[in-house]
Design brief:
The protein is of the alpha+beta class. It has 2 domains: about 5-45 and about 155-225 and about 320-385, FAD/NAD(P)-binding domain (3-Layer(bba) Sandwich); about 95-150 and about 225-315, D-Amino Acid Oxidase, subunit A, domain 2 (D-Amino Acid Oxidase, Chain A, domain 2), CATH 3.30.9.10. Helices cover about 30% and strands about 30% of the residues. It is built from 9 helices and 20 strands. Strands 5, 6, 7, 13, 14, 15, 16, 17 and 18 form a 9-stranded mixed beta sheet that branches. Strands 1, 2, 9, 10, 11, 12, 19 and 20 form an 8-stranded mixed beta sheet that branches. A 3-stranded antiparallel beta sheet has the order 3-8-4. Helix 1 runs parallel beside helix 5 (about 155-170), helix 1 (about 15-25) packs parallel to helix 8 and helix 2 (about 60-85) packs across helix 5 (about 155-170). The radius of gyration is 21 Å and the shape is elongated. The protein starts with 5 loop residues before the first strand and ends with a helix.
Length: about 400
């Protein structure tokens, strides 16, 4: 255990926790990160990590603005973090093509595109085929949205890079399972591990992802986070590179709720995504998911018939009931903060800076009002994000 009291203890070494450690250690604060498994062993290890403005992050406007600013921050900082650490974080610019696979999907794209406030371009079906000639006409398209303002990053490697840089500045990463908090009156004073050890500190960040409901017992405040399990495939394809990030709206191919295709490295491509409700960290690989993803990918891009499946990944995403991230101070417990939810990869840099500014009592660059943890004291109204996307697909499939 650390010989001296820490300034900040971070529970969770995913991309958000490691980003917070990166920015806090820059300020010469003593940082301890507690992780029950390994760095990026949760959602951060399998996230697609495409950067831009996905359609299901367009509403409400507060989430849209945060996603846009978050993506921009990662695009600006990822090359510098790679240079600082010598870790290739897989950053590259690439255009984004969102396809409509149904009339409803086309209506959604046309409705949401103007709200993104980006230099994007609505396309007819014929224009979609022209932009990416390898698309098969056997899959009916109703239109699409083209955006040059997009990029990708390897979320696993970026998490490792952030952790390495924080460690070089003195942050300590300990393999410990947090089991509770030490309190002094209404203020947090440390973290208790499952073995009874105590790490004393002035501030605690809960960056606990899908395990956040367990942490809510420690703080006495409801922090509902629903694990939404997804599965993805890795394909090895030696043909001419496909550098367009392709996504889809209005798909009807259960258990798929949308389609995602992106180049991950030289000859490696990622195909997703499915959605299953889950109540634990479910990493079971389902054959039905593999077949649905592979068959649709080959139907849409017949050249992938020559590809080899080299990986099948599974894991949950942390989704609060309203689809909005939970960000900010824990009510009635001074010095405790929560940062959890989608889009974590988009916003990891922005949220790491947010934690730094909260700890140092600096002015914040945006309002946290829509995202504060105390909003769950009243019934949740409506759904956004992946949960709403899944419901829409079920209604209009």
């Amino acid at each position: 255990m650390p010989a001296e009291k820490a300034d900040v203890v971070i529970v969770g070494a995913g991309i958000v926790g490691c980003s917070a450690a990166y920015f806090l250690s820059q300020e010469k604060l003593k940082v301890v990160v507690l992780e029950q498994n390994a760095i990026a062993s949760g959602t951060s290890g399998h996230a697609p990590a495409s950067l831009g403005l996905t359609l299901h992050y367009t509403e409400p406007p507060e989430l849209c603005e945060m996603s846009r600013r978050g993506s921009q921050a990662v695009m600006e900082m990822a090359p510098a973090i790679a240079e600082e650490t010598g870790i290739d974080v897989g950053f590259r610019r690439q255009p984004d093509l969102a396809l409509a696979f149904s009339p409803h999907g086309w209506e959604e794209i046309q409705r949401l595109a103007p709200k993104q406030n980006l230099d994007n371009e609505l396309l007819t079906a014929e224009q979609c085929y022209a932009r990416e000639p390898r698309l098969s006409r056997d899959v009916k398209l109703y239109g699409g949205l083209w955006c040059d303002w997009a990029a990708r990053v390897d979320s696993y490697r970026l998490t490792l890079a952030l952790a390495q840089a924080a460690q070089k500045r003195g942050a300590q990463f300990l393999t410990r399972k947090a089991a509770g908090l030490v309190k002094q009156g209404s203020r947090v004073a440390g973290v208790v591990t499952s073995t009874g050890e105590r790490v004393l500190c002035d501030h605690v960040l809960l960056a606990t992802g899908v395990w956040t409901p367990e942490a809510s017992k420690w703080v006495g405040v409801p922090l509902p986070v629903h694990p939404m399990k997804g599965e993805q495939l890795l394909l090895d394809y030696d043909g001419p590179p496909i550098d367009t990030h392709i996504s889809g709206a209005g798909i009807s191919n259960p258990p798929m709720v949308n389609f995602l295709f992106t180049r991950r490295s030289e000859n490696t491509y990622l195909v997703g995504v499915t959605a299953y409700e889950s109540y634990v960290f479910d990493s079971i690989l389902r054959e039905e998911a593999k077949q649905a993803l592979l068959s649709f990918a080959v139907r849409l891009l017949p050249c992938l018939a020559e590809a080899r499946v080299t990986g099948h990944m599974s894991g949950p995403r942390p989704i609060p009931p309203d689809g909005m991230p939970i960000l900010g101070p824990v009510p009635s417990l001074e010095g405790a903060y929560v940062v959890v939810g989608n889009p974590g990869v988009y916003c990891c840099i922005l949220w790491g800076q947010l934690v730094r500014d909260l700890v140092l009592r600096r002015p914040l660059s945006y309002s946290l009002k829509p995202f504060l943890p105390d909003r769950f004291s009243a019934p949740v109204q409506g759904k956004y994000g992946i949960m709403a996307l899944r419901e829409a697909a079920a209604r209009h499939g």
